[in-house]
Amino acid sequence: xxxxxxxxxxxxxxxxxxxxxxxxxxxxxxxxxxxxxxxxxxxxxxxxxxxxxxxxxxxxxxxxxxxxxxxxxxxxxxxxxxxxxxxxxxxxxxxxxxxxxxxxxxxxxxxxxxxxxxxxxxxxxxxxxxxxxxxxxxxxxxxxxxxxxxxxxxxxxxxxxxxxxxxxxxxxxxxxxxxxxxxxxxxxxxxxxxxxxxxxxxxxxxxxxxxxxxxxxxxxxxxxxxxxxxxxxxxxxxxxxxxxxxxxxxxxxxxxxxxxxxxxxxxxxxxxxxxxxxxxxxxxxxxxxxxxxxxxxxxxxxxxxxxxxxxxxxxxxxxxxxxxxxxxxxxxxxxxxxxxxxxxxxxxxxxxxxxxxxxxxxxxxxxxxxxxxxxxxxxxxx
Length: 382
Ligand code: FAD
What we know:
Strand order of the largest sheet: 6-5-14-15-16-13-17
Distance between the termini: 47 Å
Largest sheet: 7 strands, mixed
Number of strands: 19
CATH architecture of the domain at 6-52 and 106-183 and 284-362: 3-Layer(bba) Sandwich
CATH superfamily of the domain at 6-52 and 106-183 and 284-362: FAD/NAD(P)-binding domain
CATH topology of the domain at 6-52 and 106-183 and 284-362: FAD/NAD(P)-binding domain
Strand content: 25-35%
Bound molecules: flavin-adenine dinucleotide
Shape: globular
Oligomer: single chain
Radius of gyration: 21 Å
């Protein structure tokens, strides 16, 4: 296809910013509309998961956009899982045979900002404070609303939906065509806490690991940040016993941690503030039969296939989507052909990773401290 046409991206999160960079570098005229303000001026207000596990899949995509060096300068290597069994000593389970097979902890806000800079440098035009509010697909006109509620109508050639799990573009497409949407809540939520640096400014626990405190039906994990802090995430059922609902106040939350995460609690001196300030996030899997509306709109990233975070692959998978769509838009004969090829290529991959992410929750919270299971896994690797 001629890459001089105008493309409209909805959402400047992780997928939107990377896609804008890739497409603008190829010569497309790219506009990006993001409902939030510019994080480079206003500070990042991402609202969820402070840091993310970046794997080779995602790194490969960042390389295509020339972003590897910038991102890796702020990444912390995680060479394996550091498992903290109830009452036992921590043990490291390596991801691979050596440090050539590792994953990386990256800060969501900084990553997003680096990618927005790259998108602009490549020639994309970013419009902040612009929420997609509706689409007239017949007239090929999209309606955006700013923070004051003032609307703005815009003609488009095609819409690329990177507006996340609660996608407004997906809702607009669903009014035109059956997307076969299935939304499967996990029934578990998460809350984030922080391990600060030690008194001497160093790390309080092993820096180069993804820490897991498995407790059967629930768990805590912790990922390192470059400031020598760790972001701790408690994953717990929303209802039942134990659950977030069964922890109605700070005293109950503290007592729960003292009993079940006795080794982690002393690492979190601001537990009370963190618990009170950070809301409980929910988790779900989203599956769609259809990712595009002929050549007029396509969905990617969480807008097409939100997943639970236990394989640490939602962002990585979204980045792979961007690379694939960028390539197919250049290769295909028209938008509809590109979007159909994109769906055929990426949907089976996304669905496989979604299934693995659900399975990995059980492994992380229940089996990483099971000696028989670990022995079996070692034998399979030999
Ligand atoms: P988002 O990052 O959600 O971006 C969507 C953007 O669209 C946002 O900027 C939003 O403001 C904007 N937007 C929304 N609606 C509109 C609208 N109507 N108009 C305009 N703009 C709009 N993935 C990993 O790979 N590794 C991990 O370790 C990992 N950990 C996670 C931990 C947790 C607790 C959670 C919840 C997720 C985790 N993920 C992880 C998944 C990862 O966060 C997502 O897969 C990733 O953010 C998807 O990127 P996206 O750009 O599709 O969506």
